[in-house]
Amino acid sequence: MELFMKSSSLWGLEIYLFCLFIVLSNINGVFASHNIFLDLQSSSPISVKNVHRTGFHFQPPKHWINDPNAPMYYNGVYHLFYQYNPKGSVWGNIVWAHSVSKDLINWIHLEPAIYPSKKFDKYGAWSGSATILPNNKPVILYTGVVDSHDSQVQNYAIPANLSDPFLRKWIKPNNNPLIVPDNSINKTKFRDPTTAWMGQDGLWRIVIGSMRKHRGMALLYRSRDFIKWAKAQHPLHSSPHTGNWECPDFFPVSLKNTNGLDASYRGKNVKYVLKNSLDVNRFEYYTIGMYDTKKDRYIPDNNSIDGSKGLRLDYGNFYASKSFYDPMKNRRIVWGWTNESDVLPDDEIKKGWAGIQAIPRKVWLDPSGKQLIQWPIEELETLRKQKIQLNKKKLSKGEMFEVKGISASQADIEVSFSFSSLNKAEQFDPKWADLYAQDVCAIKGSTIQGGLGPFGLVTLASKNLEEYTPVFFQVFKAQKNYKVLMCSDARRSTMRQNEAMYKPSFAGYVDVDLVDMKKLSLRSLIDNSVVESFGAGGKTCITSRVYPTLAIHNNAHLFVFNNGSETITIETLNAWSMDVPKMH
């Protein structure tokens, strides 16, 4: 029996609508900069609709949010600053909102820290970063917009009162801006300064995202006193045909263990990560390489590729991420923004909110040295409630069963799959070599019977499977090895008729050796309108935003399925209902 069968005509319609959306999106600038709806920027909601609001992901009580600006840990308190519209649910009127927490789970919302108010940020206070100076004084660097043409400069802000444990008020000194672009820089593509690091010469360094013609650039600046900054003769790194680099992040990772490192760490046994958010397609890419401190240049490893064919932090709806070093638990944590996929501004106005922050993730270098590993912070486990457990259950071709006993709309699921042989893996079509994983997932999908897979979870499903979002694996035999495709497919996630809704078949490949260890693991965090998934212990991460009309709250269902001819064994399955953290 095939699972969730659909006719070829429906398949063709979905592909048509998807392609139509991509065309319209590029015309309207969805994948370039934020859409600007001047007439809606200050349209405050009459009431906030909770149908698709998340339970345990970070979001303010109402209105629009985007980039997590400057997460930091200071004197026992975690701070999250983020882009926020205090007047409406579309992008505009942006301020630096500010929330604090003792555990990264339960948050207190404070007054915004930075408003556009002076000539150096009159037209916008955009993203930036925080740095803790050696005298234990935090400082924020942020991008200010100085005119209606989006000309950008770099400013700083400091706490008004260091004795305030929450650092509620921030001052923008009058000697701003600190950095003004010279004539060689595109003034409208000059933003998002990184956390600063100090070199062996005692000079501070930061990177600012930019673009020259088609070349993405991580511009390098140096300073001795954090006030007077000079541009280096060459960028830290650049790459052709990658477009504008937004929200750059540059940090060291240990070759020895999973511990995090401060940005200024100068010891041995490290590699470096340069992450950029590509404005051209709204995805996050990173490379791993070495940092030549004498030449102040970053050199990616030979197998680490810049641009759209490179590694992603997340192969789904995840953008503008920012990481920080947490000295309390000796780890590096990355935050990312996941925006709405229902697209039309009227949807955001009616809901009264738009955007969430993904679950904060601990990030470290895989033992292979070739990629990063990401995993939800351990504090998230404090929200786990009712638990069910399952062991050694076999799934033959066409089988699926429902996971009962937990809240399927707000859950944390960890499952380990095994299989006895790789012989039934289908051949990887050479024509797919030039396609993105997302395109291959659209061709294969969860409904087409295969050899070794597809198998995995069916999340946010209605009782009769009119709606569902499958998260699954499929194994293919390539010329020299096996390729593991991981998908989070939103194409059947909602019955809602909205041609503009973005319902992609997000996917990425998982770099695992299945010859000796014929196992794959999956963890999915399900939270009403988001499915955040981690394959193979965090090697591949995919975040999907979905908007079911039937599979909501108590009417949502969770299934495990196998649609391949190779029998799959569920070695272990642990699933929990998730509680709602405290938000004040």
Automatic annotation (TrEMBL):
InterPro entries: ConA-like_dom_sf, Fructan_Metab_Enzymes, Glyco_hydro_32, Glyco_hydro_32_AS, Glyco_hydro_32_C, Glyco_hydro_32_N, Glyco_hydro_beta-prop_sf. PROSITE patterns: GLYCOSYL_HYDROL_F32. One of its GO terms (molecular function) is beta-fructofuranosidase activity. Keywords: Glycosidase, Hydrolase. Residues 57-376 form the Glycosyl hydrolase family 32 N-terminal domain. Its EC number is 3.2.1.26. Belongs to the glycosyl hydrolase 32 family. May be present in two forms, a 70 kDa monomer and a heterodimer of the 30 kDa and 38 kDa subunits. The ratio of the levels of the two forms within cells appears to be regulated developmentally. Residues 379-577 form the Glycosyl hydrolase family 32 C-terminal domain. GO terms for biological process: carbohydrate metabolic process. This is Apoplastic invertase. PANTHER family: BETA-FRUCTOFURANOSIDASE, INSOLUBLE ISOENZYME CWINV1-RELATED. SUPFAM superfamilies: Arabinanase/levansucrase/invertase (SSF75005), Concanavalin A-like lectins/glucanases (SSF49899).
